[in-house]
Amino acid sequence: MGHDKLRKFAENETFSCLLQPDASLVLDKSGDPSGGLRLHDHPIKGRWNGTMFAQDQPIVLELGCGKGEYTIDLSKRVPGRNYIGVDIKGARLWRGAKTATEERLPNVAFLRTRIEFIEAFFGPGEVSEIWLTFSDPQLKSENSRLTSPLFLERYRKFLKPGGIIHLKTDSRFLHEYSKAVAIENGLTILAATTDLYHEATAEVSLRSTSASRTPPPASPAVPPLTCPRVGTVAGGTLPTVAGPELFEVQTFYERMFLSQGYKITYLAFTIDHDGPYKHPYSFDSDYWRSIEGPRRFSHSPSSTQR
Ligand SMILES: C[S@@+](CC[C@H](N)C(=O)[O-])C[C@H]1O[C@@H](n2cnc3c(N)ncnc32)[C@H](O)[C@@H]1O
């Protein structure tokens, strides 16, 4: 391991805003007979307000936060909410935790864990909103996608009713997949656009058949994002989906993909749903994988090395 990483890991130990629990604290090694994960609750579950944060305020998560650009920026824009960036990579979290420490941001915390363990850390209704920023599209492994039915089941255990999930990604594959999951399960899509910075209207792409190889038509089922840069949905009847941060905050990966000419997509939806989440049977994964195209830089490997 490089000297720089070692230095960051050592400094990570000194940040009071960074929680780095050992996996053995939450993961029951005896496993689940059904093949799932058996988890123990972490002591902070249900107690972030009051333990990590002095102010009792709504909690917002950024999952796969990397260096935590959204977490840091949102915490400054909206002091009335508490923000937690979650990632497995300690060297990336170091950046966010260092900024939060140096700037004495009272409403920021970071959690170093696999997102697969997330329900061990948050109690029912403890989280108000989730941001997924440039998540790995996981082209081959559906259950590893952060918007798969498996992950939505996890989020449902701690997200408040009506809590919004924001997905900002360069990956058209992940955008369409997530939209298909939302449609298949009758979830409320609040906003969807396949070109955040250039399209004035949003679209919903509902692929009802996998036979066709042409992109699906836009549907009026979803209200467009009000553009430019207001961040509320048209008509004024739905709640504000996102503020100007949607356009104004760019993460490390977002800047990289923009510089390579990729369009940035955005999807906002709620996960209110009874019963198990269904797999999106109408999603044509071969088609969307084929238009994903070669990337000059891949997303970070799915490995969970530090
Ligand atoms: C493509 S990067 C995006 C980072 C940041 N959001 C950005 O936009 O710059 C994906 C991030 O998700 C993290 N990640 C991927 N799978 C994860 C998992 N299962 N648990 C925790 N973190 C994960 C990676 O460590 C990486 O930092």
Class by alpha and beta content: alpha/beta
- Mean of residue pLDDT values: 84
In the CATH hierarchy, what is the superfamily? Answer: Vaccinia Virus protein VP39
Largest sheet: 8 strands, mixed
Topology overview:
Blueprint: H1 3-12, E1 18-19, H2 23-26, H3 48-51, E2 59-63, H4 69-77, E3 82-87, H5 90-102, E4 108-112, E5 127-133, H6 149-156, E6 159-169, H7 172-184, E7 189-193, H8 245-248, H9 252-259, E8 265-270, H10 285-290
Parallel strand pairs: 1-4, 2-3, 2-5, 3-4, 5-6
Antiparallel strand pairs: 6-8, 7-8
Summarize the structure.
With 306 residues, this protein is an alpha/beta fold. The chain has helices spanning 3-12, 23-26, 48-51, 69-77, 90-102, 149-156, 172-184, 245-248, 252-259, 285-290, and strands at residues 18-19, 59-63, 82-87, 108-112, 127-133, 159-169, 189-193, 265-270. S-adenosylmethionine binds at residues 64-66, 87-89, 92, 114-116, 133-136, 251-254, 299-300.
Keywords:
306 residues, alpha/beta, Rossmann fold, eight-stranded mixed β-sheet, 10 helices, 8 strands, 26% helix, globular, binds S-adenosylmethionine
